[in-house]
Amino acid sequence: MRWTKPSLAVVATALLASACSAGAGTGPATAGASAKDTSPLTAALGGEKESAGPAPAVPGARSGGTVNVYNSVEFRHLDPQKVYAGAAYNASLLWGRQLTQYQVVDGKAKLVGDLATDTGTSGDGGRTWTYRLKDGVAWEDGKPITAQDVKYGIERTFGKGYEVGPPYWPQWLTGEASYEAARTKYAGPQDGDLAAIETPDERTLVFHFPQPQADVPYMAAQSSSSPVRRDKDTGTDYDRQPFATGPYRIVEHVQNTRMVLERNPYWKAETDPIRSQYPDKFVFTYGKEALNSNQEILSGRDGGANATTASDVLSPELYQTADTDPKAKDLVVSGRQGAFVTQLVINNERVPDVEVRKALHLGYPRQQARQVQGGSRIGELATTLSSPALIDWEKYDLYPARPEGDPEAAKAALAKAKQAPASLTYGYKNTPDGQRVAQVLVDGFAKSGITIVPKPIDPKAFLDEVHRADSPYDLFEETSSVDWPTPSTLIPFSFDGRAGSDLNSARYRNPEVDKEIDRINQIGEPRAKAKELYALEKTVMKDVPVLPFAYPTVNQLRGSNVGGAFVHPIYGTVSLAWLYLKS
Amino acid sequence: MAVVETAAGPAPAVPAPAAPRPLGRLLRDRVGAAALAVVLLFLLLALAAPLIAALYGKNPAEHYGQNTPGLLSDGGLPVLPNGGISGDFWFGLEPGLGRDVLTQLLYGIRTSLLIAFASAAVTTTLGVLAGVAVGYLGGITDRLFGFLANVLLAFPTLLLLLALSPVVQSRLVDPGAAEPEWMQFLVLILVFSAFGWIPLALSLRATVRSLRERDFVQSARAQGAGRFHVVVHELLPNVRSQLLVHATMAVPTFVASEAVLSFLGVGITEPIPDWGRMISRGSEVFQADPTYMVFPGVALLLFVLAFNLLGDAVRDALDPRAGR
Fold first, then answer.
1. Are residues B122 and B247 in contact, defined by beta-carbon separation less than 8 angstroms?
2. In chain B, what residues touch A443 (CB-CB under 8 Å)?
3. I need a labelling partner for A309 at 20 to 30 A (CA). Which of A120, A480, A529, B179 fits?
4. Do B288 and A454 touch (CB under 8 A)?
5. How far from the centroid of its chain's Cα atoms is residue A515's Cα?
């Protein structure tokens, strides 16, 4: 055999030459949300004055132009009564209006009246809530929005097919604890009129609840509190093209491909204290890989300068670029991901000894687990069950633990346990990131004398696997959020011993806590209720049912020509309704 | 799979005068000798991995970068340039977990070689047994074998493995325990073996079919030799070179396939060091830390290339007429 030698050395050198890389250096820790120990939500509810339009002007904003919105996947739903996700809530502000909504100025959110003149007045200890609609609020065809339209929208949440949306209106209005039971009492608009909501005239709504409900002003801000006009309700097609009330209307929507929004001529700025209407058009393009659209936005080519993403985050491949290139760094929009909290959940049925759980808490290598996922840019380390985004939130740390884990303290706690577990099973999503975190936990907890057995789970089956009643995992990671920025859906849902393991994934059972939940649920005023719930949260945390890991941070990109971009403090994605084009 | 279709030389009875022995011929081929040297070096490194690691003072399991402040940045990238190469970490640090790249590579050779050699041994044995027996027997056996081979060849191996690995996980592994290391190795070796023996068997069948009509076989039979004698003493020596070539070519194929499977996440899992997984990680961090991809990439390239060249050289050495 004769060869003209294709020198290996040449190949290797070429590879090496291209492989020389600068180190990460020891620069200051990268941006991300700087630790804020107070809530971004103004606790006081907006009155009539704050609820009057127009919205505070965005400094430096100008009108005109087309904003491109890229996203790898389309929103799952556009039908306002089916929408149940932060990114969709946030985007739907462009075309949909609700009874109340969050006015955001300088990253600080305040709940104000949107279609309603204020955030609602309660009577009878929180059993009645009254809303009055503003003058001059109109549909995209110019007809006024009536109280009956709002009522019809809320009636739809009872209907078949609407179980994908939040269950709260049906539960509260019927006084039933479960959505299914609520639907046996009233099953949607085809069942006729819902007696629990009165509409004495075209502009007044009176809600009657069997039990006191403190959180109605917040629920009224959710997408399911949007009006729907009976004659425009196209059924399933309404999910593709809802009839607009906001500053923009949907003129074209090809599902999973493209959606075009144009100005809604009948939207009046003086009625809306939240939204602005700077760009002429929004064009949503779906289906492009997140990395590709991010690169396009960074380079500014092909409309990338006028673009942002709906929910696609900065790809890990671009972290280094975003750190080292000042131009790229400038285009990163970071903020807390709404009210989400990531936790290492302990199955309390399988790990019943509080000392063992305390040992896990003290030995948890949080910093290392965050480092393998991208470091401080992915979030702040957490010490609480509740997110800092909640109303009147205050930081607390019941059992201060070292971020890198404290093997000595953990061993001491373990020594107090009746019986130290031989090993603990850690179920994780079988992704490269998941595998690395598993390695970190195995390595880190081993130092505290705790053996972790990592068990990979198919990412699609993960939630079902860890939530089912006889799930064999002792530990697993979970990121979840309350439904609105009060603690009302936190402890009463996720730590109620009577709830199933799909909600109470820690399988935490404490009769004292259950009793407290029942008592607190009778409180009809949001801040008073929140205060009691925070006290109860500390009671729960004493038992360490879960290990708080992080308040996740969202990093998205905006084009160099896009102004006014910030991460919505409640919805946790870039707020489209505040954007403008610089030129 | 590299199938060597050229039938081996038929003249065992009258060897060419003064022909050097195959090993000598192999060593005189400069490329072959170099390839052999590289292969032997890899073997030596694999065998001596614990010794080298002990002398070097690192192990492949410890998360140095995470446990020692100052080695990795907040985001998990090596602080020093070129993937964190330093006097302490000669090949740098793994981004994220901060393990030592050199020892990971060394122990990775063991993973690759163990799977490749075991699979090559099983496939060669199976291939010889089936190929020679079927080729010699012919008739209905041959037809049945042809059908079986076609069925097995039609199996999408990669898809099968992708589908199989969660099943193995959930059915065979106790929920409270991690999948044992031996099981991961066994599954890969079994799957490689189940499908890897067919090409060899097919080519041997063809060779044996032509050999069995040759004079020396006929005369052996005429002298009253039994089937066993004919197969073992007359046929097998004539397919020996074909076998050797197949085995040397199979090893690099299995090494590459194993790396591909681990890259896709169905091969060897953490924390067993593995080249395919290193390359997969390298591709994730390529923009930020390209150095990390280089070491497993170049190592795999060198290793597979050396084995392939060795396979070619072995064929040349055993078959003096080919390619000259």
1. no
2. 61-63, 66
3. A480
4. no
5. 29
Q: What is the pLDDT of residues B51-80, one digit of tens each?
A: 988 888 888 888 888 888 888 888 788 888
SS3 A443: helix
Q: Given pLDDT bands bounded at 50, 70 and 90, which one contains residue A23?
A: low
- Using the beta-carbon criterion (under 8 Å), do B271 and A439 form an inter-chain contact? yes
Whether residue A23 and residue B79 make contact (CB cut-off 8 A), yes or no, is yes
Instruction: Quickly tell me which residue has 């403008």 as its tokens.
Output: A580
pLDDT at A29 over 90: no
- Which token pair is B230? 């004919």
Of all residues in chain B, the percent with pLDDT exceeding 90 is 3
Contact B79 A11 (CB under 8 A): no
* Euclidean distance between the first and the last CA atom of chain B, given in angstroms as a whole number: 25
Token readout for B49 is: 């991995």
Q: Are strands A248-254 and A204-208 parallel, antiparallel or unpaired?
A: unpaired
* Ramachandran angles phi, psi of A346, nearest 5°: -105, 135
Q: Which residues of A touch B74 (CB under 8 A)?
A: 29-30, 371, 375-376
- Can you state the angle between helices A526-542 and A511-520, rounded to 10 degrees? 170
Residue B141 has pLDDT above 50, yes or no: yes
Q: Which of A16, A21, A318, A466 to mutate to test the interface with B (most CBs of B within 10 A)?
A: A21
Tell me what the pLDDT averaged over chain B comes to: 81
Q: What are the domain boundaries of chain A?
A: 41-55+75-231, 248-337+555-581, 340-553
**Which range has the top average pLDDT, A31-35, A424-428, B82-86, B219-223?**
A424-428
Q: Which two tokens stand for residue A381?
A: 């380390």
Q: What are the pLDDT digits (tens) for B151-189?
A: 888 888 778 777 877 777 677 777 667 778 888 888 888
**What is residue B321's predicted lDDT score, i.e. its pLDDT?**
60
The answer to whether the CB atoms of B175 and A472 lie below 8 A apart is yes
Contacts of B80 in chain A (CB under 8 A): 23
Angle between the N-to-C axes of helices B139-154 and B101-137, in degrees from 0 to 180, rounded to the nearest 10: 150
How many Å apart are CA A216 and CA A207, to the nearest integer? 9
Look at residue A14 in the predicted model and tell me its pLDDT.
40
Domain spanning A41-55+75-231: which CATH class is it, in words?
A: alpha beta
Largest CA distance in chain A: 97
Which of B76, B169, B286 faces A374 most closely, judged by CB atoms?
A: B76
Picking from A128-132, A212-216, A260-264, which range would have the lowest pLDDT averaged per residue? A212-216
**Chain B residues closer than 8 Å to A442 by CB:** 271
SS3 for A398?
coil
Is the distance from CB of A102 to CB of A93 less than 8 angstroms? Answer: no
Rounded distance between C-alpha atoms, residue B236 and residue B241, angstroms: 10
What are A348's two structure tokens? 């309390």
Question: What is the pLDDT confidence band of residue B241, given thresholds at 50, 70 and 90?
Answer: confident
pLDDT in tens, A404-422: 899 999 999 999 988 888 8
Count of CB atoms situated within 10 Å of the CB of B120: 24
| Distance from the B291 Cα atom to the nearest Cα atom in chain A, whole angstroms | 5
Alpha helices in A353-431, H assignment, sequence order? 354-363, 366-371, 407-416
The yes/no answer on whether domain A340-553 falls in CATH 3.10.105.10 is: yes
Instruction: Classify domain A248-337+555-581 by CATH number.
Output: 3.40.190.10
Q: Is the ipTM of this complex over 0.95?
A: no
Fold: same for A41-55+75-231 and A340-553: no
> In chain B, what are the domains?
22-62+100-318 (1.10.3720.10)
Which residues in A lie closer than 8 A to residue B316 (C-beta atoms)?
A: 1
Task: Give yes or no for a contact between A95 and A80, defined as CB atoms under 8 angstroms apart.
Answer: no
Percent of chain A with pLDDT over 90: 60
DSSP per-residue codes, A280-319: SEEEEEE---HHHHHHHHHHTTTTGGGEEESSPPPPGGGH
- Average pLDDT of span A352-371: 92
